[in-house]
Amino acid sequence: MAKSKSKPKLKGVVFLILTVFVFLGAIGLGTVWYLSRDLPSLEQLENYDPDLVTRIFSSDGVLLKELYTQRRVFVDLEEIPEELISAAVASEDRRFYSHWGISLRDVIRAVVINAIPPPKFRQGFSSITQQLARNLYDAIGFKKTITRKLKEIITAIQIEKTYTKEEILEMYINSIHFGHGTFGAQAAAKRYFKKDASELTLDECAMLIGILPRPATYSPVNYPERAVRRRNIVLRLMRQQNMITQTRYVEARALELRVTPERDDLGKAPYFTEYVRRILEREDEALDLDIYRDGLIIYTTLDSRLQAAAEDAVMQTVEANQKKLNSRLFQDREEFEELAYLGIYPEDSVKVMLEGEAPLYEELRHQLLVQTAFVAIEPKTGHIKTLIGGRPDYHDQYNRATQARRQPGSIFKPFVYTSAIDNGYPVTHQLLNQPVVLNVQSASGEWEKWMPSNYDGTTGGLTTLREGLRRSLNLISVRMVQELVPPEVVANTARRMHLSTPIRAVDAIALGTSEVLPLEVTSSYGTFANNGVWSRPMAIQRIVDRFGVTIKEYSPHRQEVLSEETAFMMTDLLRTVLDRGTGGRARWMYKFTHPAGGKTGTTQNWTDAWFVGFSPHLATGVWFGVDDPRVSLGPKQDGSRAALPAWAQFMKSAHDSMGWKHKDFPKPDGISREKICSVSKDLPTQYCPAEEEFFITKYAPTRTCRIHTEVSPRRNRQRPD
Q1: Closest-CA residue to 208 (of 170, 237, 234)
Q2: How many whole angstroms separate alpha carbon 591 and alpha carbon 651?
Q3: Is 383 found in the same domain as 351?
Q4: Which residue of 181, 453, 456, 468 is most buried, as measured by CB atoms within 10 A?
Q5: Cα dihedral angle (374, 375, 376, 380), rounded to 10 degrees?
Q6: Is the pTM of this model over 0.90?
Q7: Sign of the four-CA dihedral 332, 338, 343, 344
Q8: Distance, CA of 379 to CA of 180 (rounded, Å)
Q9: How is residue 60 annotated by DSSP?
Q10: Do the beta carbons of residue 440 and residue 514 sit within 8 Å?
Q11: Are 364 and 438 found together in one domain?
């Protein structure tokens, strides 16, 4: 009977145990289900798509800038050094290759240690797969709680079921945070060592893995001694696990820390890359892109070699111009006191800053720093090869090449001359080089009388258009607007040549009183070099996604705005300026000998100094001035002295370094070279002093000289009695 009574008791115990197990299992399953609700789905796990850095490259393959929210560049496992993988496994998860997402041994050890009072999480047990889960999916979080650990474990198991160990390592190495805004080994290698991940040495691999537990605490930039200690710990773990030999261990420990102290966030050609970034932001919506997350590759038109030459030429000229401005201000106590706020800032400190021994106070830069804009464009394509929007040593957000509207002075005269030639006037047409009176509108809106003069103060008699441009005679330009081509015609020509700024159709248009943008006016000059075809300035060649697929390719946009004949005549006129006119310094001082044309420009009171010119290879424009247009560069700081040096140095360096051969501008069929009388500019007689001149054939002279005839005035004179 006793035996029969014990059976129901045993059954009851078994039932109770089963009930408890079912109950606990249900709770466990319920917990897993509850925690899994906001965890990544299997589809998400199978479509790993991390945020990647967008990289901007020059046309010659140099990395200019990176755009990102998380600085990450994905690299394949084959490009990751074996030492880096070994260091990660040795330090972070020595049983990585044998577990299925979590290491039970590490879990038990951590539970025992963490159970010792006071209760807190002092011992971690996250495997590499768990760390990957935490880094990839925001839903897991980073807060140290049991819930987070359970979420980690669930996701880690799913990851192990979805990916191979090699794929997990690849994702881990590319996703982990290495400090200072870098994610992944490639970004970290670039940040700390200025090299690719594939080039990392053993000690560098150990250092990178060593900082993973606390990137801020173990930063090799901020705490180099801590970083070295962590590196040595990782090396010791690698040695203990027979991943490296004793010799390599000793050698790596002995090496000094070699990291880059600061990261250049500006990158190369910062004004250009910012210009590109703004273009990309406009493309974001149209192409459904996110330039900060999609890991795009942007191939641009800029040439890093030409950019370096431009920056060098600009800095030399900036320093020379700043020195002259300083000298003028230091001698003019009243102006210096007003501009430098000497009641607020110490005079000696400001002088030291202006002389380049310390950065100038930001509040004073607008009125005391000589600034610049520099653009070089390929005439045939419109490719922007160089772009500088301000002095390289004082970078700011204001891009003067694309945003600064400044008076052009005499660099606007070619638009006046283009209008005249386009309307049938030959370059031999003569005008009186004598004073004229203009009606100009003042800032208050009232009309005033103004009598312009030539830059050198001279006057003269009849002067040809060629001579007027060669010498940059203001009086000839003004008479052209009054007698040959009305201001409205000149304004239309400027608009046709793609100057988008308002060009005021007044008589003073001849002297460049309407503001222009450096990028646009340089592009317009490129029209002369390109046979009358304007090419829209172009910064991006193509956009490629992270998989190497071209999303968008950009092609040159061209428009014929001048006839070939007009463009050639203007090119030849501007060659005269460079060969024996106001731009002659480029030839005899700076030894730039390639066929080229150009024009100096200076505004009233030497406020703006310009030089814009071109060869068959490049159209280049440069401006110097102070951001505050009320501040003068100083007496005699005209375009030939303050701007031409940068232009000439760059053009010579560019043509020499690129190996460009001397190439002349092609002469269209509609152009003829005629012999004319050098006095009357008509067809010569046998008694005329003759010269040769280019003409648009349909406008070539047809009248014979009436000054030099067989019976000349000298021969017809009677003898005295």
Answers
A1: 234
A2: 10
A3: yes
A4: 468
A5: -160
A6: no
A7: negative
A8: 42
A9: T
A10: no
A11: no
